[in-house]
Structure formats: C-alpha cells, structure tokens
Design brief:
Largest sheet: 6 strands, antiparallel
Strand content: over 45%
Mean pLDDT: 88
Order of helices and strands: EHEEEEEEEEEE
Radius of gyration: 16 Å
Shape: globular
Distance between the termini: 35 Å
Number of domains: 1
C-alpha cells in the first residue's frame, strides 16, 4: 500500500461517523491501546481494522487484509465504559461507532459511542465532534474474512 492509498478520514458530522463505522466494523482493539488523555481532552485508540475497502462482495480467493490504524477524538469531556477490562491480553471486536445529539435540561449533549461484541462499550461525551482515523502501517494478511449473519 502506498502512502496515498492509506485510509485517512475526518468526521465532523453524523454522516461522516456512519462511513467510518462501516470501515472500522470488525476491527480488533487491545485493552492496552485505549487511552483517555484528560489534559488534552482527547481519546485515542489503535484498531487492527479489516480492510473492507479492498474486499469484494463475493467469497473470492483474494487474500483479505487487516491494517493498523489510529483513531483520535478531540474535545472529549467525559468517558464512560461498560464491561471493559485492563487486561494486557484482552481484545475487543468493534461492531459500530455511532454519534448522537440529545437535549438534556435545555442543553445539547453530544455523544460518540463505540459498541463492541459481548455488550462492551465506550461512550464519549463531547463539546463538539472531531474525529480522525488514519492508517499507521501497511496492510498485513488477515487470517479470515469476518462473517456476518444475513438474517
């Protein structure tokens, strides 16, 4: 993969987050690669993402790839999590990323939610949406293509 082929995206609206969510689906995240930088009001993680943009819709014999990417969320006011542990060898499967704005006590509350398998999750409360995702390494062969139930 050349430098110009690497994924580099920015999200500032909910529609942008939907696209990122599709590209990050089935990403593997190590518990040790999740960091809230309170002084910088940012949250970062490293994701071993499946390269959906390289996969076709058929069950072809093409070697599927994964790629390490960095994700950074700015303007983070608060982080809450559900079920995540700090185990060095603990990995989580990212299912989706969603963004919502709700009104609470006459104030707009902005939340970005990372949903992982087995009911795990991270919710970030934001001052404003500013999210960057960028590949930080060349793709490497994946062991398998993620399978989804088509029900």
């Amino acid at each position: 993969m050349t430098e110009e082929n690497r994924l580099k995206l920015r999200a500032v609206a909910s529609e942008d987050v939907e696209i990122m969510s599709a590209l990050l689906q089935d990403g593997l995240v190590s518990a040790s690669d999740l960091h809230y930088q309170k002084d910088a009001a940012s949250f970062v993680m490293v994701i071993n993402r499946f390269c959906w943009e390289q996969a076709d819709d058929t069950e072809s014999q093409t070697q599927p790839n994964r790629c390490l990417c960095g994700l950074k969320v700015a303007h983070v006011k608060r982080v809450s999590q559900r079920g995540l542990g700090a185990g060095v060898n603990q990995f989580y499967n990212l299912l989706s990323v969603t963004y919502e704005e709700t009104k609470e006590n006459e104030k707009v509350v902005k939340r970005l939610t990372f949903t992982f398998s087995n009911g795990y999750g991270i919710r970030l409360t934001l001052d404003e949406l500013a999210l960057i995702v960028q590949d930080i390494a060349a793709p490497h062969p994946a062991l398998a293509r993620p399978q989804h139930n088509k029900s």
